[in-house]
Amino acid sequence: MDIIMIPGFWLDGASWAAVVPHLERAGHTCFPLTLPGMDSLDADRSEITLADHIDAVVAEIDAHPGGPVVLVGHSGGGLIAYGAVDARPDRVARVIYVDSGPAGEGAIINDEYPAVGGELPLPDWSMFEDEDLVDLDDALRAEFRRAAIPTPAHVAQDPLHLTDERRRDVPATVIACEFPSSQLRDWIAQGHPFVQELGQLRKVEYRDLPTGHWPQFTRPEDLATTILESVGQS
């Protein structure tokens, strides 16, 4: 299976480096994406939009005409993955949300981080919730910060536009890290807006991987195993 891997904020395709070998040893082919504007610190990303990032994923899907693909989206990359599913619902075998999930029409990824010159630098760790930082020790934090690239502000703040109801028929997996899947189910039952679109999916499974928000750094082998288990359901 071809697995297209979409990073979250401040990350490029190399952020999947500790996960990919486990997937490839299992016989899959991985395509970790570096999205537009995320290729270097010096890139001009001030005008790059959410649509640009979704279009980049769609272009990667179209580059694999031999069969359906699996999308893996981490954090904000989950909403980008969902936008691509909406554009190509017949070309995605499964979408896997790593500590993330889908969102509905008009949703934005996050408008709380301060923008500087049209981009969002990685903020101080004090900006994050304690749950985000579980298992992310000092060495991993230093490694993350050295590799971090500012995210285009438009990607974080542009509204998502959706057009195809078939997106809800594409099988999905939610890998729950910060909060257990039982809490996600409770939020759905309570009608929490954060999970409203998730509750509309027709084929969704939940898998728990307790750690912080960046399991590709804190538990990469376990994340790979969980992805493999999910791909096996496709």
Automatic annotation (TrEMBL):
MF (Gene Ontology): hydrolase activity
Name of protein: Alpha/beta hydrolase
Keywords, in A-Z order: Hydrolase
Keyword DNA damage: no
Species this chain originates from: Occultella gossypii
Keyword Hydrolase: yes
Record domain AB hydrolase-1: where: 3-224
Gene3D superfamilies associated with the record: alpha/beta hydrolase
Pfam families (UniProt xref): Abhydrolase_6
